[in-house]
Structure to design on (192 residues):
């Protein structure tokens, strides 16, 4: 009886270890990952742009309902479709790319609704200042990627709104320019 209890306890311990395997590692796919922004322009139109150069990693544990994201954006890759506007956005009046060449989002929590990621919370560092940010998911999925020998690829569409003045980006506020910026993050990452 004593041996069978010991064997049962050992089997339970082994099963618990298997159930809590390390999270899978993923690399951001830059061809399917885009970070765009939108900001109101005097109540008349919406200015839009994106960051073309980005890289990062994801750790994802579907069974443990946990994960981490580390995403870096290169400010000098900002692209609005208008070269003069891009240059102004990179200037010291706005993003100050010379002093702060990157922005970085590092998550600390994945929240789930059932089996799907519903939001990711973390810290956004922009212009040398770090603020908490919650990205809400509008969709999320993992799939065997047919173009990558069926390697698992996970991704989703996320969005949040930030107050740019919290990061010290105050240009145009006195003239009535909007301070709230909508960030739209489309991200896919490939299992390594």
């Amino acid at each position: 009886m004593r041996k069978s209890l010991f064997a049962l306890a050992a089997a339970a311990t082994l099963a618990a270890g298997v159930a809590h395997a390390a999270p899978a590692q993923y690399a951001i796919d830059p061809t399917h990952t885009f970070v765009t922004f939108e900001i109101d322009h005097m109540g008349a139109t919406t200015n839009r742009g994106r960051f073309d150069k980005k890289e990062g990693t994801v750790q994802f544990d579907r069974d443990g309902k946990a994960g981490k994201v580390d995403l870096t954006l290169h400010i000098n890759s900002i692209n609005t479709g208008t070269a003069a506007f891009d240059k102004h956005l990179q200037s010291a009046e706005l993003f100050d790319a010379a002093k702060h060449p990157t922005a970085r989002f590092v998550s600390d929590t994945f929240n789930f609704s059932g089996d799907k990621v519903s939001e990711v919370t973390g810290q956004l560092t922009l212009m040398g200042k770090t603020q908490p940010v919650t990205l809400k998911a509008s969709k999320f999925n993992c799939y065997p990627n047919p173009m990558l020998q069926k390697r698992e690829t996970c991704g989703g569409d996320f969005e949040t709104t930030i107050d740019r003045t919290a990061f010290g980006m105050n240009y145009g506020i006195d003239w009535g320019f909007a301070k709230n910026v909508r960030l739209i993050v489309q991200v896919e990452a490939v299992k390594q």
About this structure: The helical segments are 2-19, 83-90. The first strand starts at residue 24 and ends at 28. The two ends are 45 Å apart (CA to CA). The chain has two helices and eleven strands.
